[in-house]
Amino acid sequence: MDGDGWRTRGAGERGGAANTASVPARRRVPAAERREALISAAVHEFARGGLQGTAVERIARRVGVAQPYVFSLFANKRELFLAALERSFNEVADAFRGAASEFREGRAPSECADALDAMGHAYKALLTKDRDYLMLQHQCYAACGDDELIRARVRHRYAGLVALARELSGATPERLDDFFRHGMALNVAAALGVEELSVSCDWVAAELRQG
Fold it and tell me: Between 190 and which of 4, 53, 127, 203 could a Cys-Cys bridge form, CB atoms 3.0 to 4.6 Å apart?
């Protein structure tokens, strides 16, 4: 009887071990991976609510972590906003580099006469591909009015894009001026959901007819 009891308990123990083994262990997510996920979530949320209108809790909930965990990786909401800002400018810089490389290799769209044209084409595609990055740009410029640190960072990154475009294209200052003015116009047009902003375009005339 004792032997049967031992055998029965042993089988139960083995069954318990088997049951435990069948449940996969929960993977511990490294802090660096969580940080990247939080920045991605911040891009999405700040693009909609801006610096002042976005609660950190919304960003944390989007990633599935508690709000205090966010502040273990970022000192405050502004630091998280700056990380999202950096991600946005990096996307534009990567688009410029990729377009210039494609032009050199003969893979740019046929309508692109030079590297700067290719970069403009790539930028326009970026605006339509991911609206979050477009709207975050607008939120970054809006935040400059309230925060000197953000203003300084945006100025620095914008100047960096100018230097990068000049380096990649070799364009004259005049052409670069036109390029960036046109880029700003594209931002506004894309935010409005229209193709152009000229005074004679169809949508402007339609709006004026409506009074």
Answer: 127
